[in-house]
Structure prediction request, 265 residues.
Amino acid sequence: MKTGDPFREGDLCLLNDAKGRQYLVTLTSGSTWQSDKGSLAHDVVIGEPEGVTVATSTDAPLVALRPRLADYVLRMKRGAAVMYPKDTGALIMWADIAPGCTVVEAGTGSGALTLALLRAVGDRGVVVSVDKRQDHAVHARRLIESFWGGAPPNLDLRIGDVEDIIGDVAPDRIILDLPEPWHSVAPAVDSLAGGGVFASYLPTIPQVQTLREELHQAKIFRDVDTFEILMRSWTVEGRSVRPDHRMVGHTGFITVARKRLRRTR
Ligand SMILES: C[S@@+](CC[C@H](N)C(=O)[O-])C[C@H]1O[C@@H](n2cnc3c(N)ncnc32)[C@H](O)[C@@H]1O
Prediction:
C-alpha cells in the first residue's frame, strides 16, 4: 500500500472534520458513519484516493486519510494502557531498535509498542512479544492485525511470563512495559550478548529505584540512563501563539542499559 492509494474495503480511515476532530473507522461496504454533523456512507470513501474531501448528509466536509501509527494508537479501542507515541519514539532511538534486530517485548498489552517495534525491526527482524494475560494477547493481536492489514510475519506473540521466555530467544534487545521488570534482569544477564540493550518503561520512581538497584547489583550493565519525555504542543492561530492550555503531564520513565562482557583477565 502506497501513500495516496485509493481506499479499499476493510481499510482503516481517519475522518478529519473542519474543527480538527478525528474519527477512526474501518471501511465496510454498505455501512454508514453517523455523527452530529450528519451521516456518511462508507461507499462514498471506498475507491477514492487518500486525502480526498467528502461531505456528510448535511454537507459538512471531512478529509479522509489513513491513520498514522500515532493516530491509531491514540484512537484504537485499547484494553491495557498503551505507551504514548512521544515515549515510543524515544525508546526506539535509545534502545537502538534497528532492522534485523531480535527483540523480546513484554507485556504486549494493547500492542501499541509492538506495532512500532515491528516497523523498526523490519522484514529481517523479529519481535517476540509476551503477555501473561491471554485476554490481553488476544485483544492486542486483533488491534495489531487491524493496523497491519493481516498478521505481521515478523511477530511471534506468546502467552506466558517474560522471565521464562527471555532465555529461549537470545534477543538483541529486551523492552519491558510491565510493573516489575527487575525480575527479568537475571535472565537478561544470561541471554543478552555483549552490547545488547535492556530497556524498561515505568510509571513511578520507586519502581525505577528498584530496577536501578537490580541493574547495579548485576555488575554487568553500563550506560544506564533514566529519563522522561515532556511534549508540549502549541496553539498557533493568528496572534494567539502560545503553549496549549492542556498537556499530558506524566506517562512514564524510560530506563535503558547496555550489557558488557565480564573481564576474563
Ligand atoms: C501497560 S501494559 C503494556 C502496554 C503496551 N506496551 C502497549 O503499548 O500497548 C502491561 C502488560 O504487561 C503484562 N504483564 C505484566 N507482568 C508480566 C510478565 N511478568 N510477563 C508478561 N507480561 C506481563 C500485563 O498483563 C499487561 O498486559
